[in-house]
Amino acid sequence: MSSDHVNYMKRALQLAAKGAMTVAPNPLVGALIVKDGTIIAEGYHSKKGGDHAEVDAIKNSTGDLGGATLYCTLEPCCHTNKLTPPCTNLIIEKKFSQVVIASLDPNPEVSGKGVKALEKNGIKVLSGVLEKEAQEQNRIFFKNMKESLPYLKIKSAITLDGRMSSEDGDSHWISSEEARAEVHRDRALYDSIMVGVNTLRKDNPRLNTRMGKVVVKENKKIIVGDLRKEDLDNSLFSSGAEIINLFNKTSLKDSRILSIKNTKNWKDNLKNLFDAGIVSIYTEGGSTLLSSLIEEDIYDELTFYITQKIIGNGPSFFESKKNKKMSKAKIFDGVWRNLSSGEIVLEVKR
Fold it and tell me: Contact 37/66 with Cβ under 8 angstroms?
C-alpha cells in the first residue's frame, strides 16, 4: 500500500468527520479526487437526503475527470433504495480510472456490490486502505447495520469514592469545566441522550449539545420511567426536540412524547428504540439506569470521569444485587488518560 494512498485516505477521513453532528442516521463519508498527483476536489456527506460524498466531490470539481482517482472512506452505493441516485453510475459516467476505498459498506444492499459494479465497467478498485480507522469512525453505522440496534454509550462523572452525587442529590459540580466541555463535544456525535426520571426531576437537564452557552444541537431525549404531569414543566419539554418515554406502568399522554413500553429487557428496549428511529444513545442517567445497563452488559462504550473529590455518602454509579463475590466483579479493560484539571478518565470500548 503506497504512502500516497494512505495520506489521501487520511484526508478523506478528515472530510468525513465534518458531518458528525448532522449526518445521522447515515454514515460519515468523505471523498476526494486526485488527478496527475494533485487533489482537485473534495467532498463529504453532510445530511440524510443530501449529496453523498462522492457526488459532492464531483460537483466541486472542474474539468475532465477521465483517468482520475477517487478516494472514498466507504464503498460507493449502487442501489436505488435511497433518496439519492446510485453513486456508482456517476463514477462510471465520469470515467474514473481507479477508486480507492477504505471500507466496504456493511449494508447488505451495497456490500461488495458497489465494487463489482465499478470493476464490471473497467474501473480499477483498491479497498482496505485505512479500513480499521474508517470502521472505527463509523462504529455507530456499523452497529446499526449489523445488529439493527442503536449504539449505546454510558458516561458518568464520579468522585474518588465512586459517588454520583451527595446524599441529598447535589452533583454540581463533581467534574471540572474541562470535563463538561469534553462531554458536550462527545454528545454532538450522538442523536439522542438518555436519562431516568429521577435525574430529570433532580437536575432539570436540557439534554442538548452546547459549545459554551450556544446550543449547537438539540439531541433527541429519552426518559426512562413513568412521567408525571408536573414533569412537563422541565426545560427539555420546551426544546422542540423529539422526546421518547420508556414508561414502566403509566404512559403520560402528550403530543410531544412518543411512549414506548419498558420491557425490563434492555436488548428489547433498544430494538424498539431503533425501530422508532434512534440510531445512537448517549446515556447520562443515575445509578438505577446505569446499573441496569451495566448489569446486562448492554453498552458499547463507557467513559468515567473520576475526580479527586471524596464525599463519603450518596449513590454509587453501580449497584448490583447479583454480584456477591469479588470473583464476579465487573472488569473494565480500557484506556486511562488525564485531564489538565487533574481528573482521570477511563474509556472502555466493547
Answer: no
